[in-house]
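User: Last request for today: this protein with S-adenosylmethionine, please.
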Amino acid sequence: MEIDKIYCKSSEEMREVDDESVSLVVTSPPYNININYGNKHVNGRAVEKKGIAYHDNREEEEYRKLLENVFNECKRVLKKDGSIWVNIKNRFVNGVIIPPFWLLDFFSDMYLKNIIIWNFDWGGSTSKRFSPRYEYVFWFTKSKDNYIFNLDEVKVPALNYRPDRFKSQMKNPSDVWYIQMVSGNYPERTTHPAQYPEELIERIVKFASNKGDVVLDPFIGSGTTARIAKDLERKYIGYDTEQEYVNMAEIRLKQPIQRKKKKSKDTRVYYWEMDNHTLGEFVKNNGRTR
Ligand SMILES: C[S@@+](CC[C@H](N)C(=O)[O-])C[C@H]1O[C@@H](n2cnc3c(N)ncnc32)[C@H](O)[C@@H]1O
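Assistant: Here's the final one, the structure of the complex with S-adenosylmethionine:
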């Protein structure tokens, strides 16, 4: 089996990948919300298709069947101690929310360990309901008890109201993750319309795989998963039906990662780990953050 490779084909059949050879599957499937998978943007909207054939507006049954086929393949290639992480969000259709919990049916032979709420501050505003500011990440393991779980690799500083006096302790990051969306001024931003943040995937790859393990993304898009896997000394395999995105991912894999670095001596570092509510309370009681 070839590794460190991105295939330009549908992941409904991944014959190139051996049974039980992958430790971690992490992906965000197409949402079926009529996203324009063009790759030129004006004012944040995709306007040009440039040969992108994928249409994000399938019949619902056909869409769900596609995902079921792909995830069946993911289960086939997954090692016994491996896990599958799926980032997906609510859809808002004809005035009502459609949550993606139908997806859980495809994993009834696996173990749902967490539903992560990925919270961010970015997106369109709504006037007749609260603005949507989260997506889900479902985490499924193949084995009930024996699965890769590197909690120490991803611990975050505990809230500490006197960072000038006490060293912060490290804690479990919980199942609500506050990580910003990839907005226009991020160095990692590509023209892919549904790119997820490197920071989100970094936490998952560190937590749920070890160095040298194979990480698979069956809907690789701009290559975020492969880029993080490579940076963290894992192996990667990716699939996408669009040659344009495969090319984009391959270019990205050759570029050095430019991650925001937190300065350890800066006492403000702990603000970045606070959730919005706690930060709001803190600012109310203690003044501004800068
Ligand atoms: C939500 S995007 C993934 C974006 C990715 N997480 C990133 O950070 O760039 C979904 C991707 O799935 C691809 N896709 C759609 N149907 C596919 C299929 N049957 N097999 C493989 N890829 C497919 C689309 O071209 C699109 O790039």
